[in-house]
């Protein structure tokens, strides 16, 4: 999994300043002479509780699943003790989710009921708290839904019983002499498909913005889920063949397994409301795998590969997958995949516990054919199970990186146990599902259409304003917000001050040309949850200002630091920094009328109008500025003297 998930956590340092047109309060349009900036968007958002309504619906759906399990719906026996660790995690998440939803509703009531009675700072504090609580609640509910689904799987698989009449009726009994050749060829076919899916995911990882046929990919993921569980059922001998028993497992495994199960539940509880630090998470995952790995190494050196060995390897792999998803990012897709992987790991531990408890009564009986463990070909089936699990993780990684919707509703997703759906595990593996190599086309990816960038020109002067038009509508990786930056051409992708783009839209962005001449690139990045890769690199040149000042063009020493101005066809644009420690430049965009320039300034402080008038033969200017685009005075003076330019 490391091959598919690394680099997914690339940080997206999106600027909060006034340089991107769609950002609240800092966007403006200057289509012609004398036009004013767009009015700023209010920083106070009205909450009509759509997010809370959605959270409430999702919580109700998860609680309904738990209630159905507690009342015994769809379960013919009493609750299985081996599912208790999943139940413990679900109980914690249920309490947290209910409490968070109550807190959210209290906060919403306080905001909506006191619109005029709160100071702006207090009201905005409540809004920030509400947004944080909604984010945490969304995470907790995702976890609750995953654990509820895993409990349902655990109960329906009847892990507390070795033999199950329902399974006996639905699953074809195996005869090694008759079925081994068919099983082996089927396993090879499934593994070839899994390898093709993994190869497509590697291609997906290389693309900066992959797209795929989402419906077909979702269907393939569902079928792989069924065959994965079917392989587990066959390899684990859920219907033990007469006369075939398994070797007695090493006594230490039960102790190690109990420790791992408790560790997984503790991990689930501690990561309910917030993501655990990656280093701490990986260390805990390594600790859990170390005990299992030690048992595996000792057992295989003494007894050879046992039927339980592949289950131990599978559990270790699923712990790894959960840890990698947690490390990959904090978006909804990553969080959902993390909780699903974590619940799968706990369910695998329950399955291993059930396998260890199987009776050895038939061990002395006559064996059939070339059996390994409870059925023929258990080792090959176990290896195929692991390969299919890797393929599913790879496919779902690519679905998350592509512009596919999130996972479908539980009702639309087939149950993970093939036998419980009336499709026998043997039939699912040997051909009832269309899982040949041709099916790999459903996992194929292609590069999305690029973002369209257009400029007024390709050559700019030091400090001049670059007006960039970005059309993100055709790019699948910019359906949600992406980012744009101006960087030195050829520089590493990560070294850039980025500004937020309005996804799925046409935006006009203003960037300040660097004061140091050279070749630069306007670089567009995908949104973080689509990989954050570079989508477009458009090279521009920056030339030095001429020596001295001609009209307003030149370098000026002003009340607000050095101001670089360039005049083209009556329009004057430029940038300035208040001091050497100012992280980002401010901008000036205006029109010239005689010896007067009138326009708008923008900086990290906000935006407003300004008027500059040349004096002393064009070697100085005097001016004023305001705090709204409509006012060019009233806030202070803005005076400057020509410095010329030396580079």
Protein described:
Helix content is 42%, strand content 18%. It has 647 residues and is α+β, with helices and mostly antiparallel strands. The chain folds into 5 domains: 113 residues, no CATH class; 150 residues, no CATH class; 111 residues; 92 residues, Immunoglobulin-like; 89 residues, Porin (Beta Barrel), CATH 2.40.160.90. It has an 8-stranded antiparallel beta barrel. A 6-stranded mixed sheet has the order 1-10-9-12-13-7, with no helix packed on it. The chain has a 3-stranded antiparallel sheet with strand order 6-8-11, with no helix packed on it. The relative contact order is 0.13. The N terminus is likely disordered.
Keywords:
647 residues, 18% strand, single chain, 8-stranded antiparallel beta barrel, 5 domains, 6-stranded mixed sheet, elongated, alpha+beta
User: Uncertain spans, ≥5 residues at pLDDT below 50?
Assistant: 1-48, 162-172, 238-251, 300-306, 359-374, 408-423
Determine the structural class based on helices, strands and strand pairing.
alpha+beta
Total number of distinct structural domains? 5
Q: How would you sum up the major sheet?
A: 8 strands, antiparallel, barrel
Largest sheet, spatial ordering of strands: 14-15-16-17-18-19-20-22
Mean pLDDT: 73
SSE topology sketch:
Blueprint: H1 2-5, E1 14-15, H2 50-70, H3 84-113, H4 120-156, H5 165-170, H6 176-206, E2 210-212, H7 214-236, H8 252-270, H9 278-303, H10 309-328, H11 332-356, E3 371-372, E4 375-376, H12 378-401, H13 425-432, E5 445-447, E6 452-455, E7 459-461, E8 465-471, E9 483-488, E10 498-500, E11 506-512, E12 518-525, E13 534-543, E14 554-558, E15 561-568, E16 571-576, E17 586-593, E18 596-603, E19 606-615, E20 620-625, E21 636-637, E22 640-642
Helix pairs in contact: 2-3, 2-4, 3-4, 3-8, 4-11, 6-12, 6-13, 7-12, 7-13, 8-9, 8-11, 9-10, 10-11, 10-12
